[in-house]
Design goal:
The protein has about 325 residues and is α/β, with parallel strands linked by helices. It has 2 domains: about 240 residues, Aldolase class I (TIM Barrel), CATH 3.20.20.70; about 60 residues, no CATH class. The chain is built from 14 helices and 9 strands. The chain has an 8-stranded parallel β-barrel with strand order 1-2-4-5-6-7-8-9, surrounded by 5 helices. Strand 3, helix 3 and strand 4 form a beta-alpha-beta unit. It binds flavin mononucleotide. Flavin mononucleotide binds next to helix 9.
Length: about 325
């Protein structure tokens, strides 16, 4: 990869990215973030690379590559196994127009698929190195990795860093939990700081960045190129804006309720269109509510989760 291209991606550091979240960061949700919140980069949900079909990426996943208007970079994320299928998937995605490719080395549920994928790939670092080398040779756009600190040992990352660099990976997102930890315990950002001190690649910190104070503290880490926000961003999309303004004070409840009403209300028409039908759209909206922990609004949010029709859901939304 031409280093100038990668440098230009990171020239406006620190970057604030929206994390990929399967089932949640659909094109409609991403576009909503792009419009009022403008993350510096967004990701597709992981695309499962097919091992049994000659079409390595489904048509619907391929169409994700061109899903947004505007300039904000969209990273297409692959999850899968096998050099052949992954390389062919990478080629297919590039042909479809992908400008940024990422490999998932973090998903802790990799065994649920047909072979070791996601975080499971960290169990065999030699095989992983061979795979990354092959992929790099086929990827002409920038190639990043999103990984856990290790499979069972959080310090495995220090063995992985030179492998990533030698294989020509361009940049890295680190979620400092182990795969075995799944979502238990806390993301250990002391480890992020240790990694940032020696990492030869641009490094993005991810994991448990749920408020401005935590984000700003992390941005003090020398060498860090940015933050990736996942569940915190679903709960509070305007975290991006407040991080940029360094605004630590909590948002007054009236304003917060108004933001929530707009956020959920704006998604409604897009969900209806994308998910073909009221039931599906309602289910998807309820999935999102599970990530909004506001204690002040729990009573109404709880009722919204139980609503049986979009009409009822929309009425309750106005009561927030
Ligand atoms: C429901 C859900 C779905 C996720 N799907 C993906 C995914 O498709 N690809 C990926 O790399 N990570 C995925 N993740 C992990 C997140 O991107 C992120 O690394 C993790 O949630 C930690 O960041 P957070 O504490 O800011 O949420 C998912 C997480 C959740 C909770």
């Amino acid at each position: 990869m031409n280093p100038n291209v990668v440098n230009s991606l990171f020239e406006n550091k620190p970057l604030l990215m929206l994390a990929p979240m399967q089932g949640l960061t659909t094109r409609v949700l991403r576009q909503w973030f792009i419009d009022p919140v403008e993350p510096d980069m967004v990701f597709t949900e992981f695309m499962r690379v097919q091992t049994r079909s000659r079409k390595r990426v489904t048509r619907s996943d391929l169409s994700e590559v061109n899903s947004h208007r505007g300039e904000i970079p969209l990273v297409a994320q692959m999850i899968g196994h096998g050099e052949g299928p992954l390389c062919e998937a990478a080629e297919g995605l590039q042909l479809a127009g992908a400008q940024h490719l990422n490999l998932n080395l973090g998903c802790p549920y990799g065994r649920m698929l047909s072979g070791a994928t996601g975080g499971e790939l960290l169990r065999e670092p030699l095989k992983l190195a061979a795979l990354l080398g092959k992929l790099r040779a086929r990827i002409k756009v920038d190639f990043s990795i999103k990984c856990r600190a290790g499979y069972e040992d959080p310090r495995q990352i220090f063995e992985l860093l030179p492998v990533f660099a030698d294989c020509g990976v361009d940049w890295l997102i680190l979620h400092p939990r182990t795969v075995e930890q799944r979502y238990g315990g806390e993301a250990d950002h002391r480890l992020t700081a240790e990694v940032a001190a020696i990492c030869p690649l641009p490094l993005i910190a991810n994991g448990d960045i749920n408020d401005v104070a935590t984000g700003l503290e992390l941005l003090k880490i020398p060498g860090l190129s940015g933050l990736m926000l996942g569940r915190g961003a679903l709960a509070d999309p305007f975290l991006f804006e407040r991080l940029r303004k360094r605004q630590i004070e909590p948002v007054p409840q009236v304003e917060r309720s108004e933001q929530l009403r707009d956020y959920i209300g704006d998604l409604l028409p897009g969900y209806l269109e994308q998910f073909c039908g009221e039931r599906q759209a309602l289910m998807k909206l309820k999935d999102l509510l599970n990530f909004i922990p506001d204690s002040e609004s729990q009573r109404i949010l709880g009722k919204m989760k139980r609503a049986q029709s979009l009409e009822k859901f929309s009425k309750l939304l106005q009561e927030l």
